[in-house]
Design a protein that fits this description.
By secondary structure, the protein is an alpha/beta fold. The protein is built from five helices and four strands; from the N terminus they run E-H-E-H-E-E-H-H-H.
């Protein structure tokens, strides 16, 4: 697993992800556990609500704030690749609303994006339930 192909960026905000190498390993473990051979290029882009709203409007034609937008750029069925945009403002607000730490909410949203790239949907009630179960499972698998 080429963990060096998992990248972290910030756009229009001042944000630095903590524990990058541990997160790379955790994401790599998740991808392998989901049945994929390797990571292509996987980019996590941390941004503001306004930045992500613009992406949501432009590319998905949704006029709502969201915590995450995921774009799959995989060219092979056994390789995960894509861009995962995450609103840090939404993470902070959701963490407060759900009574969890910002770190845990950030990790939940990050693994949510990875699970989307692994083919897990969340449009139906059954898919949402399965997504939450997988998020909880992989959060419990963190060793940091």
């Amino acid at each position: 697993m080429a963990l060096r192909d998992i990248h972290f960026f910030s756009e229009d905000i001042d944000f630095t992800l903590q524990e990058k190498q541990k997160i790379r390993q955790w994401i790599g473990h998740t991808i392998v556990h989901q049945g994929y051979a390797r990571v292509g290029e996987l980019n996590f882009i941390f941004c503001s609500d306004a930045y992500l709203l613009n992406i949501n409007q432009t590319y998905l034609k949704h006029d709502t704030y969201t915590d995450i937008v995921t774009f799959d750029s995989s060219e092979s069925q056994d390789v995960i690749a894509g861009d995962v945009f995450i609103s840090v403002e939404r993470i902070r607000e959701n963490a407060q609303e759900f009574g969890v730490s910002e770190r845990d909410e950030l990790h939940r949203v990050m693994i949510h994006g990875v699970l989307h790239l692994c083919g897990q949907g969340d449009k139906t009630e059954a898919e949402q339930k399965q997504m939450t179960e997988k998020e909880n499972f992989y959060l419990s698998e963190r060793s940091f």
